[in-house]
Design brief:
single chain; alpha/beta; 2-enoyl-CoA Hydratase, Chain A, domain 1; 2 domains; 14 helices; 8 strands; 46% helix
Length: 326
């Protein structure tokens, strides 16, 4: 997947491109019989590229949300396989279950041997059902916890990839103590003495994302989003209307560039024009370079400094002001 496919189902904001794409497709069918139209075809290609660049330079927060949720966006396994074709997957939480929504493995990223942890949404309908559409169960977070403790024991950096609407809120998850599983991960990640680097690759939602996101450095792909609640949930609470999702996206400051300005994340990783789903190899390389850069920098800290650095980062997130005295 190294090129743009105009035949992909367009997102809402990409609709203006469809008329041009249809014209290009029609001319390409006629080219063999009428070589004279080659110049017209080249002109339409140029118009298509210019319009596409213009659209992607003016994206609204809700447009970024659509891209973050794109069904062809690369997931954890796509990244791991491109970073290390010989990566070793670890299954199970050692308590009796294995949640496919959470991927755990050992891999090399550049010169770093790391423990990789990431959420997985699934491609086919069957895969999506098995992965619970990227919403981990308590067993998934306990599998991640196994990886966190393994990294601490063997002094290996931790790399986490976040793409989940949140932890699964169903009855079975609550019966298996979802809140406790997330809380334990938060505590363990806050206290480990190895480097932790997180990458929000798609949708980072609520405590389900934070459970693998307490990191020394947090990176975000250009069109990913990261928020305390879904925009739909925010709209239903604040406006009591599903029609206010766009306003919620705007108010929540959930895009990568906004969160970089607020100091919540440390770097925004460029995506190919049109989004990560257009070129898996390029976005995987961009993410790998960012990870290597931050892992190299964190090598300069000793184990206790790594823990202090991480805790200080999260204590400094957020801002408040005191109103003037009346």
């Amino acid at each position: 997947m190294a090129h743009t496919d105009r035949k992909q189902v367009p997102l809402e904001f990409e609709q203006p491109l469809q008329a041009l794409a249809q014209q290009i497709e029609n001319l390409e069918k006629q080219l063999a019989d009428n070589p004279a139209i080659e110049s017209d075809l080249a002109r339409l290609h140029e118009q298509y590229d210019l319009l596409r660049r213009s659209l992607y330079s003016k994206l609204r927060p809700i447009d970024h949300l659509e891209l973050a949720r794109h069904k062809q966006r690369p997931y954890t396994r796509d990244y791991f396989e491109r970073w290390d074709s010989e990566w070793i997957e670890m299954h199970g939480d050692r308590k009796g279950a294995d949640d496919p929504a959470m991927v755990l493995g050992l891999l090399r990223i550049g010169g770093h041997k790391v423990v990789g942890i990431g959420t997985q949404k699934g491609r086919s309908l069957r895969d999506k059902q098995q992965c619970n559409f990227g919403m981990p169960q308590p067993e998934g977070y306990r599998k991640a916890l196994r990886g966190i403790r393994h990294a601490e024991k063997f002094n290996l950096p931790i790399v986490t990839l976040i793409d989940t609407p949140g932890a699964y809120p169903g009855m079975a998850a609550e019966e298996h103590n979802q809140a406790e599983a997330i809380a334990v991960n938060l505590m363990e990640l806050a206290g480990v003495t190895v480097p932790v680097v997180a990458v929000v690759t798609g949708e980072g939602g609520s405590g389900g994302a934070l459970a693998i996101g307490v990191a020394n450095r947090i990176l975000m792909l250009e069109h990913s989003v990261y928020s305390v609640i879904s925009p739909e949930g925010c709209a239903s609470i604040l406006w009591r209307s599903p029609d206010k999702v766009s306003e919620a996206c705007q108010a929540m400051k959930m895009t990568a560039k906004e969160l970089l300005q607020l100091g919540v994340v440390d770097e925004v990783i460029d995506e190919p024009l049109g989004g990560a789903h257009n070129d898996y190899d390029t976005v995987a390389t961009n993410a790998k370079m960012g990870l290597i850069r931050h892992l190299d920098n964190l090598r300069n800290l000793n184990r206790s400094q790594l823990r202090e650095d991480r805790q200080k980062k999260f204590r400094n997130i957020g801002a408040f002001y005191e109103p003037a005295a009346v």
